[in-house]
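Posting for a labmate who doesn't have an account.
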Amino acid sequence: MKLREFDAYKRLPLPVVSADGCELVLEDGRRVLDLYGGHCVNTLGAGDAKLGRILSEQWRTLSFTTNLLDHAPRREFLAAFERNLPAYREHGDDGWQVFCSNSGAEANENALKLALASTKRRKVVCFKGAFHGRTAAAAAVSDTKLPAFPASPFEVVRIPWCDVAAAERAIDATVGAVILEPYQSLAGVTEPTKEFLDRLRSACDRTGAFLIYDEVQTGNGRLGAAWAVQHFGVVPDVFTTAKGAASGLPIGLTVARSHFAASVPGNMFGSTFGGGPLVLAAATEVSRRIASPGFLQNVRDTSNALRVAALRGPIEKVRGAGLLLGLVVKSDVRAASVRDALLEQGVLVGTSDDPQVLRLSPALVLTPRDAQRLADALETLEVKA
């Protein structure tokens, strides 16, 4: 018997042999515009020349070493990453601290661990429609069709998304953490209100609970700002990221206000591969590129172009921000059918848990002129029932 993978993924019939920038190259030479970006991963696009040179040089210089040793890529990463962090000074705090791991689920696990250890509480408030990962704690606060883990390691209170009254009732002095995605991507790019985020912040301040943003998908410039913190103007106690933070290499980052990070023993955290020199070299380049002149403006300009391009054919509405967009299809079609029809036209988009919503999460180097290809595809689309 030949070795087989678990049947975990329903893969698309797309014979990809290579990728270039924002395009996938197929076996027969055809090029497909990639508006999905590997689930918000390919921040700088495929085959970025400068990133390739950096990784090659880092591999030759120091490919890996134990976290018991300091190294230049770690120092360079901290300096570059700090430039994009939201300003924060309070309670004599000196800003933020970060812990490096390997994935978004790990980053969220560490955020929850920090919050519950610091508050000495065992209850977490989360939201319907959320997805935070498939490990024990991350799965416990996710709203999935099938349970991703046998049991929860703490008490969970799950409330409706954007329900201010339900949130204020749930967040009391027994709650150690409130965790949310600033935009619920998998749920169909569902948008919060500013009032909702403000009231969560106030409830956490009142009760001593930690407010945690899961920025695995919304972070690293995707919303047209470095972080949702800047986009919405509501500062959490902890935020996490992964996916696009190293533009294709595995990384997880848990970022906490310094006085909270100092409230628990440092040896509570650990990671064999987290913070390795090769991955941090990539993450440093991503951070520098996000801070470079014009980069975030291009994200905003391209977002506006995609919004205009998308409102035709079967698309009824566009929601989201920056280059995390949800395309709501008309009621007489399904998003999966539109996805398949677009793929036949040479454009790859994603679906979501909402059968009426497509997702766009392309590389942040996509340009406004690329949006025309989406417009042209939608204009000529023939959607199969």
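Reply:
Got it, the structure tokens are right above this. The chain has two domains: 16-34+293-379, 53-291.
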